[in-house]
Amino acid sequence: xxxxxxxxxxxxxxxxxxxxxxxxxxxxxxxxxxxAMTTQDAETLRVAWMMMELAGTYAIVPLALASLLTGLLMxxxxxxxxxRYYWVLISFVLTVIAAGVLIQHMQTxxxxxxxxxxxxxxxxxxxxxxxSGELLHAGVGLVVLLVVQVLNVYKPQGxxxxxxxxxxxxxxxxxxxTT
Length: 179
Fold this sequence. Notes:
Helix 3 (86-117) runs antiparallel to helix 5. The longest helix is centred in the N-terminal third of the chain and has 36 residues, at 42-77. It contains six helices and no strands. Helix content is 84%, strand content 0%. The chain is an all-alpha fold.
């Protein structure tokens, strides 16, 4: 069952907004990581960790979940389906993995942000040590999101076995209905 055109356009608008917002928020997060990695100022390092937690908790995670849910809605409510085309299935699986890793990794970010907020006992060495993991997580996450974006823009051909079965069933039904 496909969505009526006005609803489909609205859902697509929300999905694109959330997806592009997710990418933009990750880029901002990477800027904060790089600023923290290059600063010699202890206060900037502390604040960067606290801001990374805020960005992750209130922007990146909500945008990731909204992108995942609206992507699922778009897959199930349009002709593309969730299991018919490889590009849709791969995009969905990559998005689920990215959102799952993000949510799990936020525990680490929360830990370092809490450590950074304890100004009197902050171990700057520990705060600096955590940054390389942040660069890796956010960098790989951005690459995954860009791969998903490219797949969704170019929509490479290729039906899954399920997609082929549905296509053959529809073709057989069309032949039967015309005779």
